[in-house]
Amino acid sequence: MAPLPQFAADTALVLRMYRAMTLVRVFDAKAVNLQRTGQLGTYPSSLGHEAAHVGVGAAMRPEDVLAPVYREFGTQLWRGVTMTEILTYWGGDERGSDFAVPRQDFAWCVPIATQTLHAAGAAMAFKVLKQPRCALAYIGDGGTSEGAFYEALNLAGARDLPVVFVIINNGWAISVPVAAQTAAQTLAQKAVAAGIPGVQVDGNDVFAVREVVGEALEAARRGAGPSLIEALTYRLSDHTTADDASRYRSGQEVKDAWALEPLIRIRDFLINAGLWDGAKEQALLDECTLKVDAAVTEYLGKAKPSSDAMFEHLFAALPARLHEQRLIARKYASKPSGH
Amino acid sequence: MVEAIAMAHGWEMQHDANVVVIGQDVGANGGVFRATAGLQERFGKDRVQDTPLAEATIAGMSVGMATHGLKPVAEIQFMGFLYPALDQIVNHMSRMRNRTRGRLSCPVVIRTPHGGGIHAPEHHSESTETMLCHIPGIRVVCPSSPVRAYGLLLAAIRDPDPVMFLEPVRLYRAMRQEVNDDGQALPLDVCFILREGCDVTIVTWGAMTMETLRAVTELDKRGISAEVIDLATLSPIDIETILASVAKTGRLVIVHEAARNVGVGAEIAALVAEHGLYDLLAPVQRVAGFDTIMPLFKLEHDYIPSVQRIIDAVEHTFAG
Description:
The complex is a heterodimer.
Chain A: H1 11-36, H2 50-59, E1 65-67, H3 73-79, H4 83-90, H5 114-128, E2 135-140, H6 147-158, E3 163-169, E4 172-173, E5 176-177, H7 178-181, E6 198-202, H8 206-221, E7 227-232, H9 251-258, H10 262-272, H11 278-300, H12 323-332
Chain B: H1 2-15, E1 19-23, H2 39-47, E2 48-50, H3 55-66, E3 71-75, H4 86-93, H5 96-99, E4 109-114, H6 129-133, E5 139-141, H7 146-158, E6 163-168, H8 169-174, E7 192-195, E8 200-204, H9 208-221, E9 226-230, E10 233-235, H10 239-249, E11 252-259, H11 264-276, E12 285-289, H12 300-303, H13 307-316
Parallel strand pairs in B: 1-2, 1-3, 3-4, 4-6, 5-6, 8-9, 8-11, 11-12
Antiparallel strand pairs in B: 5-10, 7-9
Helix pairs in contact in B: 1-7, 3-4, 9-13, 10-11
């Protein structure tokens, strides 16, 4: 086992990461509950991914650009996206993608793997404009089967772009396990053919993730090129609230994965360092619950957008041809209301 | 309707050993909508295969399998995920027979969910059939009921050429109907008259048949007798049935969920203008989705044409 990275001595940072991981865990449970009670649309739980997501968030700089998939709430919250925005999007309202902060991050990417090319393109922009910034794209284990993923790796390598690709290998692409997805022994080795470095990291270890991703970003920033990181973790939840994983994977496998879930080890680290105890844990959970409840209240209080929203931002200026349709939409729109 | 689709797969796999089902999560999971439920247990992992997560793979391997003895029935999980497959569909699947002068062909069915209305996430609710109808050499089919889904899917699988089979998501669970599992296919390339009438012809397809039939019930009360035609095969269009109806009623309203601009409704209106203009007593009306991005689900019912919009469009053909 590698020695702890230097930043592990930064108590404030480690505590901040633990708090962020706990917050996203509490948020996630609430979001699933909102969906179950008909107050949210289909929602992709991030349960079990907290170390990978928060570790990446903590490694990035604010001026870097994130190209997420759709599950990396821990990274997004770290970067300033709000819980209300996340709920708004998954509640079926485009306003959720209009992040107050970070203004230049990409929004969620539901089509698979397309975002990896956007990150490569953003990195190309940074290179051409001589800005000391990096792009970071997430992708799932299943997504690495898509052509767009290989194209992004190839482009990044061929043009030496300041971009980092992070594969969240959680074992399952809905019902398809990694072993049925590819004959490659690791997903990190997919970097080899693109001529860029590829490494694996324990995705349930927030220290390791922050360290490995941080190094990759700094290398990219100083012009040493792109890299691919495979973070090994486990999807403790169903794929989304529309999925029932009991159809295709064993309960024992999930039970075993819980023993390795990422909050346990950072909490143990804090306890062993004398920085944490039961009372602090309870206070943190209470604080997280209050924050989540406040976000939920704000989300539920948002009025339904008007039908005009379909026509807003379609173009910089709405073509005259569409004015009539906007009027028709108004005429037949259901009455604006809350939920 | 989703059970009828699974049933049609089962019948044809039972009776034709060359039929194979491929797609994402079609195996142990039985498809995200359960349209392939139970098939892998019944027919094994060679004939019901989960593919890697890659739509170009699904379409491209279908070309290879179909040209060499198999009949792939492929599922693309949502229509919004179809686009990586289009290169294979446009450049190879649709023209294989033509460019090899009949030497090779592609008996492939690509099934994909179609349309909105079920509170799904982004990219899960679009209806972009017009993009497919523009491709020569493929058929585009959209069933409007469980009975239609069963019979048309059998026909699609048995057809020697590629068929895009669009399954309206609103009908998957909303619509229940007794379906005889008798292996009887319905014909492709023809419309179905859902209801006879004498004052106005309404042409629609897929899930919009629901709103249309509700509108027609209301129009009855107002003394307007509407004939409702389910287009069913969106390409090529059975224009004869539509022209015969318009010759009888003198009025035409076309209802579709997809955006209006260059929609299938525009083709129908053009064909009627070319061949049946003098039968028309009023301008053709189109009731369609707006030329906007399909909104996320808070507004999806403001996008999908409402019963009232259909009623108003029909009444408009009687105005003046």
